[in-house]
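sanity check this record:

:::
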Amino acid sequence: MNNEKNKQDRENLNRQDERKSSEIKSERKSGLDLIEVRKQLDRIESVANEKNENESEKLENLKNRIEELEKSEQDRNERTNILMKRLEASTSNFNNKLDVFEEKTKHARLNFETTAKHYIKRLDEDNLKLDFQQAIQDELSDTKDEIREVTKQAREETKEYKEILESKIKDHNKVVDKSNTALKVMTKGVTNIFFVLIIFVLVMLVTGPIVISLVLNIYIALLMVLLMTTKVHGDI
């Protein structure tokens, strides 16, 4: 009986040793799995940190681009003010030309009246009538030439002012259209970024860090598209 009891004890001990050995192996395997999971989490965290740095850089570039557009808009307004001042000066100069034209016309009329009065006194003699007609024609000829010259000069200056004004207005409208287009794109892009940020936060709350890498890649791609679009519109 003692032999059988000893045999049973040895078998029990062997079974206990096997269970302990199995438990030790299982614990080692679990430990290795935990270490591997921890390494994966560390890699994910490293990728997330790198993506966050890239995201901050892209946002900073976007902010700088907005500031450049605001400065461009300010410069455009300054150029518009300068253009308006030049147009006002040109208009004033044109008005001065009209005043000169009016003054010369008035002077010519006075000369005509003086000449007419002078020769009317001598109309009693027939031989002076021809002199009167010739004098009137000469005076009128000079006056007509002077009026034609002033009128021609006024028309040329008016045409020049009109061409300058139309050119400046076209350039101004082009600048306004470009600025408005760029601002619309920037506004739409910033709105999309905020929506993407909200979606990103919701995804993090729901799925945890496992999906961070995929979401960040999508977000960075959207940022790149926005920056490229803004750059294209700004360069136009």
Residues 232-236 have pLDDT under 50 and may be disordered. The chain is about 95% helix and 0% strand. The chain has one domain: 2-235.
